[in-house]
Amino acid sequence: MTNTVRSVICGVGSYLPANVVTNEELAKTVDTSDEWIQQRVGIKERHIAAEGEYTSDLATAAARAALANAGLAIEDIDLIIVATTTPDYTFPSAATLVQMKLGMHHGFAFDIQAVCSGFVYAVATADSYIKSGMARRVLVIGAETFSRLLDWTDRTTCVLFGDGAGAVVMERVELAPGEPERGVLTSALRSDGRHWDKLYVDGGPSTTGTTGHVHMQGPEVFRHAVGKITDVVYTTLEQTGYTVGDLDWFVPHQANKRIIEGAGAKLGLPPEKVIMTVDIHANTSAASVPLALSVAVADGRIKQGDLVMLEAMGGGFTWGASLIRW
């Protein structure tokens, strides 16, 4: 019998900008209230990047934290993948800027753009590079300065989002027959471009030549979210022979408390198995899953041997899930 190659997460890190904006502060500049925001989406506060603080800065700080947690140096990394919708520049990629800031002069780096699903897409991509032998260790980062895409006079969108970054180090491990299972077991990725206008930014290099602002058909996004989330979760479980009851932790994209609770209820997951940080981070797009993951690892909830489901859905629509034995 041959050994099984797995991509194991060996380090986790995060970074949040120092500036915290509460619902009460937003209510001073836009027609909203703490009660209104909490009732509809469950958000209490969000972090906003400072002037001159860019996505690559957030990503670099999270990467350094993940490397320290793994006990590794940048020389140990072969590939950097940054999932982001808000790169510093149209080009070069945020990943190459992170590579530079970390002092990495070897290997390769690139961005993934799948909006809120970006980190899950990046995990699946890193897993493929590791299993193909093209990389041994991969730094996977979700980082956003989403505040820069917002119209701060639009209360339907500006209250929902925040900035931040989370990162993991994934490394190739060969498991001998009979060894305990570890690493990424499987991933399921989906997209459907027919829904592009339900959640999008009204600008870009090829259309307006400007950055643009976020626009969202909230009820439509909500209507699609729960079904699409459960679809990919069940797909990964079916591929591995596990059931919802086998899951130790569910780490969903932190977009909306009601969506998270709805998906958990439809899956039959008890609330105590669902990691929720939307109240303190808001929706940080591609950074939300690794930020939630980092919180749950740091506080001791997620530990070695646990079966963990990552899940996200974002504009496009894109959605996906990864099942990981920690």
Features:
single chain; 326 residues; alpha/beta; Peroxisomal Thiolase, Chain A, domain 1; 2 domains; 5-stranded mixed sheet; 4-stranded mixed sheet; 32% helix; globular; lipid biosynthesis; fatty acid biosynthesis
Q: Would you kindly provide a written description of the structure presented here, covering whatever features stand out?
A:
By secondary structure, the protein is of the alpha/beta class. It folds into 2 domains: 4-175, Peroxisomal Thiolase, Chain A, domain 1 (3-Layer(aba) Sandwich), CATH 3.40.47.10; 183-325, Peroxisomal Thiolase, Chain A, domain 1. Helices cover 32% and strands 27% of the residues. The protein has 10 helices and 13 strands. It has helices at residues 23-26, 34-41, 55-70, 94-101, 118-132, 155-158, 218-240, 257-267, 278-281, 288-298; strands spanning 4-15, 19-22, 45-48, 79-83, 108-112, 137-145, 163-175, 183-191, 199-201, 214-216, 249-252, 307-314, 318-325. The strands form 4 sheets. A 5-stranded mixed beta sheet has the order 1-7-6-4-5, sandwiched between helices. A 4-stranded mixed beta sheet has the order 8-13-12-11, sandwiched between helices. Helix 3 (55-70) packs across helix 4 (94-101) and helix 7 (218-240) packs parallel to helix 8. It is globular, with a radius of gyration of 19 Å. The two termini are 24 Å apart. The mean pLDDT is 97. InterPro entries: ACP_syn_III_C (IPR013747), ACP_syn_III_N (IPR013751), FabH (IPR004655), Thiolase-like (IPR016039). Homodimer. Pfam families: ACP_syn_III (PF08545), ACP_syn_III_C (PF08541).
